[in-house]
Amino acid sequence: MKIAVASEEKNVSGHFGHCSNFNIFTTEGKSITSSENVVSPGHDHNLIEFLADRGVNVIISGGMGAGAREKFDAKGIEIVTGAQGVAKDAAQAFLDGSLVSDDSVCCRHEHAHECHEK
Questions:
Q1: Number of neighbouring beta carbons within 10 Å of residue 25
Q2: Which ranges carry the Dinitrogenase iron-molybdenum cofactor biosynthesis domain (predicted)?
Q3: Could you tell me if 65 and 106 are in contact, meaning their C-beta atoms sit under 8 angstroms apart?
Q4: Which of 13, 64, 65, 62 is nearest to 39 (CA)?
Q5: Nearest to 25 by CA among 81, 93, 102, 116
Q6: What is the 3 state secondary structure string of the chain?
Q7: How far apart are the C-alpha atoms of 14 and 5, rounded to whole Å?
Q8: Which residue, 12, 18, 81, 117, has most beta carbons within 10 Å?
């Protein structure tokens, strides 16, 4: 399985579409076996296809808009929002079952957490 974490360097980004990079972790069972840091092609690029083409099964982010959520759902990619902290720790917490999505939806294109609605 591959887990992508929308990131700012090594930390989880507050908003999927505005992240500077993706930390992509390849896993086996509950272990991370390898990782790569991929620069985001930018918000105007089709980020869902960009990640799907890399074999991503799960996307982790602080927040995400409704449009991106719909596109990930259509691709069968699991979405986890509400994450924060170090990207690798978030990916491991997902594998351990301790990272639970808050299912929030960003209603504006800002990094502020006030934009999240459930």
A1: 26
A2: 9-95
A3: yes
A4: 13
A5: 93
A6: CEEEEEEECCEECCCHHHCCEEEEEEEECCEEEEEEEEECCCCCCCHHHHHHCCCCCEEEECCCEHHHHHHHHHHCCEEEECCCCEHHHHHHHHHHCCCCCCCCEECCCCCCHHHEEC
A7: 11
A8: 12
Whole-model pTM?
Answer: 0.88
Q: Is the pLDDT of residue 110 over 80?
A: no
Q: Report all structural domains of the chain as residue ranges with CATH numbers, in order of start.
A: 2-96 (3.30.420.130)
Q: What is the pLDDT of residues 60-90, one digit of tens each?
A: 999 998 889 999 999 999 999 999 999 999 9
- Write out the two tokens for 97: 């079952």
Query: Per-residue pLDDT averaged across 34-59, rounded?
Result: 92
